């Protein structure tokens, strides 16, 4: 049988490529974005407790109501805003499923979707599968600042959606309050939907404040705010996230959600609902990861890499332009094979694979792992 691929240009992701290479060469893996330390034992015990309490059948389609109430309470606490737990919050199988479902619910053939590059790699394939067209705004190293005049120029009658990601993976940068106000002004009076990918909302450094889309009234009225418990609580393999949006948008989301997932792992949802009763479980996350960022950067301060400290996420971008002129993909592979440390080349996230001679390293690792990584990087 012969078929025309719906994603003819999509191959194996760079995450799989680099992690496979790391495994083959027994390299320290700072490429894929997952912690190598345990989630809180209390949270894991709560999952077992939920199973033993018979939360083992289908959850409600929109999610366990206790969890949705806990999410609503979190938004009230952090952002002084409200989402109705019955009509404006849906629990999803990770943030990626939420993003895919939003795009599927709203994007039709020839609709245009603006994304900011370097961009997380799940956005464009979902747009393409639904017949949409990706319009890129390229941000440049090392600061990755947005030219809002360029954004305004790229909006037209075909623009259906804008996707932002703050704090941003893979660059480790954040949108400022001024960025969000300019975006709000540009979108005001349009029918453009905003996806605000905020999976690293609790990982932001140097006393900065996360600028959620829900802070800004006009943005909130057109936004899906997407989040991830896996990123927050060090258990990416659980694949539980959620999204919040005004009822009229969420109604359309649920029409698709019920047929591609229906509902998410029930005992995990119940455990998360109970765990969220203590806000300290997420309020201390920025300090926790800033200590890791600062440790990592202090250990490599005398290396030949040029450093612009990450402002959020658990990723650090390092500039290697004073070390070699190799293409970043080639250099990343050579480091994995010869030096036994794996990273992610940033060009794969850029428009036309622009190579700025930078690699992304994940510092969501034990201190022991970060010391080993620094010892390698200091010799390069």
TrEMBL record:
Protein keywords: Aminotransferase, Pyridoxal phosphate, Transferase
GO cellular component: cytoplasm
A Pfam cross-reference name: Aminotran_1_2
Gene3D superfamilies attached to this UniProt entry: Aspartate Aminotransferase, domain 1, Type I PLP-dependent aspartate aminotransferase-like (Major domain)
Record carries keyword Transmembrane: no
Molecular function terms from GO: kynurenine-oxoglutarate transaminase activity; pyridoxal phosphate binding
Cofactor(s) recorded in Swiss-Prot or TrEMBL: pyridoxal 5'-phosphate
Aminotransferase class I/classII large domain residues: 27-374
Family annotation (InterPro entries): Aminotransferase_I/II_large, Kynurenine-oxoglutarate_AT, PyrdxlP-dep_Trfase, PyrdxlP-dep_Trfase_major, PyrdxlP-dep_Trfase_small
The keyword Transferase appears for this protein: yes
PANTHER family in alphabetical order: FI04487P
Family: Belongs to the class-I pyridoxal-phosphate-dependent aminotransferase family.
Protein name as catalogued: Aminotransferase
Species whose genome carries this gene: Aquaticitalea lipolytica
Biological classification of the source: Bacteria, Pseudomonadati, Bacteroidota, Flavobacteriia, Flavobacteriales
